[in-house]
Amino acid sequence: MKFRILSVCGTGIATSTVAAENCKKLLKERGLDVEVIECRVTEFASKVQVFMPHAIVNTTPVSSKIAPDIKRFLAIPFLTGIGGDKLADEIADYLKSLNK
Amino acid sequence: MTNKFKLDSKVVKTQLEAKTKEEVLAQMADLLEDCGYVKKSYKDGIIKREEIFPTGLPTGNIGVAIPHTDVKHVNKPMIAAATLKEPVKFRVMGGSEEEIIDVKIVFLLAMNDSTAQLELLKNIINVIQDNELLDKIALIKNEDVLLSLLEKRININ
Predict the structure, then answer these.
(1) Domain count, chain A
(2) To probe the interface with A, which of B50, B113, B114, B128 has the most A CB atoms within 10 Å?
(3) Which of A63, B33, B41, B65 gives 20 to 30 Å between its CA and that of B110?
(4) Which domain holds residue B95?
(5) ipTM of the complex
């Protein structure tokens, strides 16, 4: 099963791009097939409807009113490198639990 | 696609003196504006965006911030780098209002095309993930030394 992950940041310039790449790499290392796309927080409401992600990784707070049932993971460890593996483990476990 | 990038010594500063993050951002934005990299509106844009989307990163011993703003304020891509004489408080990226860190190193990003500059961003993130390097950078007093160290890690030839 291919999982979809939406990476969200404030301007869509910087952080979500790098977070998305690192997220994808670390989840692949954990044997997961993932598609990660990026968007700005202002595009979030529309992107989430079209892309229908299994999980969201965000570098900026995302309104809990929109798509409240999709789990969010704060992606800062994918930028700082501190705790990146732990976060990838958590996301991998979560995605695997969806597949049962 | 070739995408060369070279840091500019005029926008690399050590031991910058400032009391607040707004002072840091204003001083660094002025450097970029004086050299023509950004428009007059950049300074205001960067200060406002930092309020809404903070960019402080908890990176081990030395806190780093990577402020950036909308591409419309930018003429030509550049990264201003500064080490601060005394740490200044920044809010943590993605964190709540109470999450504040002491920042010693600031990379002010002036980007004008997101996809083309991915490599550049990755270089910056690689620097940020290297704790030993950050410890070293924070102590550098000579601007030429800082520039040559950053050039090795950030420039794209």
Answers:
(1) 1
(2) B114
(3) A63
(4) 9-150
(5) 0.77
